[in-house]
Design goal:
Chain lengths: 132, 140
């Protein structure tokens, strides 16, 4: 399943997941806009995508059922945003910046969706010979 | 689809901000309340927000999805105003009544901030809903 998907849609299936993760992070930032001491975070997209699409990662062998799979810990790709204007309560969320990022992220997500849709349409054309 | 988590996060933000609006309404409504003693006088209330790490399930710490929780409601420790009103039926033995320590300007600022933050969370929910709709229509 994943092998077929990878060949058909290229990096866009992985990109979709990463955009989604980023949307989640930014939504968390916006929800915490008034929480004292909250530090705004963001996904390092380049790194996250490189991690998601690299297949030559060395896996840790787990010899016990209680071993924690390191790939389940996604903290490595989350970075902290550098605040432009420090606030008195230690909160580093800049609502306007987060909104702009959220909007841009949505457009990126839709772009990945369009690429996948185009690929499906192309396949359908190939299958039906342009009759469908 | 983990996009549902965004609804949780934005929803927690909306809940927190609406509670903040509630306390502002209570404070403004009681701005002119008076009391017979300094202890029972109305004190301005303010919610205490904190970040909550959501969905720590199955041993997988899912960072990045951070909602808001209300830790509690604090009462302002500012001094209450005492007024000499011997004719007031609830005045104490010395003829003083005690007014609330609500600052209407603070409350209005809080109200605007809370309603803007609430709107932001609604917008996040709307955009996410549209994106999910588009994802469902994939391939059509």
């Amino acid at each position: 399943m994943s092998q077929i998907n990878d060949n058909l849609f290229g990096m866009h299936t992985q990109a979709l997941g990463t955009w989604q993760k980023r949307a989640e992070t930014i939504a968390g930032n916006l929800a915490n806009a008034d929480t004292p001491g909250y530090l705004a975070r963001d996904v390092d997209f380049r790194k996250a995508l490189a991690d998601a699409s690299s297949s030559d990662k060395l896996a840790l062998s787990s010899t016990n059922a209680n071993h924690i799979d390191p790939s389940s810990l996604t903290t490595a790709n989350l970075a902290y945003r550098v605040p432009m204007q420090p606030t008195m309560d230690g909160n580093t969320v800049d609502t306007q910046v987060e909104q702009a990022n959220f909007a841009a992220n949505s457009v990126h997500y839709q772009a990945s969706l369009s690429f996948i849709t185009a690929q499906i349409r192309m396949l359908r054309t190939a299958i039906t010979g342009g009759q469908g | 689809m983990s996009m549902f988590k965004i609804f949780d996060v934005a929803g927690s933000g909306m809940a927190a901000q609406s509670l903040r609006l509630n306390t502002v309404a209570s404070n403004l409504a009681n701005a002119d309340s008076v009391s017979g003693s300094a202890d029972t006088a109305y004190r301005a209330r303010e919610p205490l927000f904190a970040t909550v790490q959501r969905s720590v399930s199955g041993g997988k710490a899912e960072e990045g999805t951070q909602g808001v929780q209300v830790l509690g409601i604090t009462e302002s420790q500012a001094a209450v105003e005492s007024r000499y009103e011997p004719g007031n039926p609830i005045a104490d033995a010395d003829g003083y009544v005690y007014a609330s320590n609500v600052n209407p300007v603070d409350e209005l600022v809080n109200m605007i901030s809370a309603s803007r933050s609430y709107q932001n969370n609604v917008e996040v929910m709307n955009s996410t809903r549209q994106l999910m709709q588009k994802t469902l229509d994939l391939g059509k």
